[in-house]
Design brief:
The protein has about 290 residues and is of the alpha/beta class. The two termini are about 15 Å apart. The protein is built from eleven helices and seven strands.
């Protein structure tokens, strides 16, 4: 289902025309058929549906249409399949977005049932949003299903995760660990767009950034943190987190990679492989892939 389809100009599953909504739902049901054939577990949904002007459509009615569509697709899921609902506070719509925040996504997932969970895209929030709070709450409610990791400075920039605010990534990963979310039940994904930097090295760097944030979060002395919190030692509690964050974990991660039998320096290994030069040479004269590929 592509937001570039003219039928979806005014929405897909929330469109005022029942025929367009049926087309969108049929496509989602087809996706579940593909999940059956491939053994896929997760149906991850992000809707670009929304409005640009006050009065353009009925806000509450669009939520009713969304709920109806999600329910139809949810009922089609198999026992080992689940639905992940992603939110985004604006863009491409500018007045209302039909799933604009974690609360809206959570409310729909809660009503649907245990096989519906929220996907947190770290770039889909207003500036200053406390994402780690959202993560902690969703984990507490057993409604966190996935992450789309990336970085943002202004809007949905889709830059390398950890590039804009590595301390935020550390705080998020601490709450993931604190809430028992470092398991296969949480899908950790990269959702990024590499426009000016080479794509494969950017992905490698992104994975390394997540590894470093996770390692630092695992170093938090949780006993010392709990003691400081219980005694009201504000600065002491903050210092426990900062000590872990300021630890250089790169040598430790290099050792772990060596123990796994892989190169301790992934970026250097990629450069030495010659893969980048090889694929450039092989693709001379080819056609560039794009959104329609």
């Amino acid at each position: 289902m592509s937001s570039r389809d003219d039928d979806y100009k005014l929405g897909s599953v929330t469109h005022p025309d029942p025929a367009v909504r049926r087309k969108a739902v049929d496509h989602l049901l087809e996706c579940v058929d593909i999940m059956d054939a491939t053994g896929s577990r997760d149906l991850k949904l992000w809707f670009s549906d929304g409005t640009n002007y006050p009065g353009q459509d009925d806000i509450a009615a669009r939520q009713d249409r969304l709920a109806e569509a999600l329910s139809t697709v949810y009922d089609r899921l198999g026992d080992d399949q689940r639905m992940l609902l992603e939110y985004k506070f604006f863009e491409p719509a500018f007045y209302t977005t039909d799933v604009p925040d974690w609360g809206t996504a959570y409310a729909h997932c809660l009503k649907l049932g245990p096989k519906a969970q929220v996907c947190v895209d770290t770039g889909h929030h207003a500036p200053g949003t406390n994402i780690e709070f959202i993560v902690a709450l969703l984990l507490r409610e057993k409604k966190l299903g996935a992450f789309d990791f990336n970085s943002r400075f202004y809007a949905d920039d889709d830059l390398m995760v950890g590039a804009a605010d590595p301390f935020q990534l550390f705080r998020i990963m601490y709450e993931v660990i604190r809430g028992g979310g470092l398991t296969p039940d949480i899908a950790f994904m990269l959702d990024q767009c590499h426009n000016i930097e080479p794509k494969i090295p950017a992905i490698i760097r992104s994975v390394m950034n997540v590894q470093e944030a996770t390692a630092k979060a695992l170093l938090v002395d949780r006993d010392a943190l709990a003691t400081a919190q219980q005694s009201g030692d504000v600065l002491g509690a903050n210092a426990v987190l900062m000590d872990a964050y300021n630890t250089d974990v790169r040598p430790l991660l290099a050792e772990v990679r060596e123990e796994l039998g892989i190169d301790p320096d992934p970026m250097a290994a990629y450069r030495a492989s010659g893969w980048a030069d090889r694929i450039v040479a092989e693709r001379v004269g080819g056609e560039q892939a794009g959104w329609g590929a």
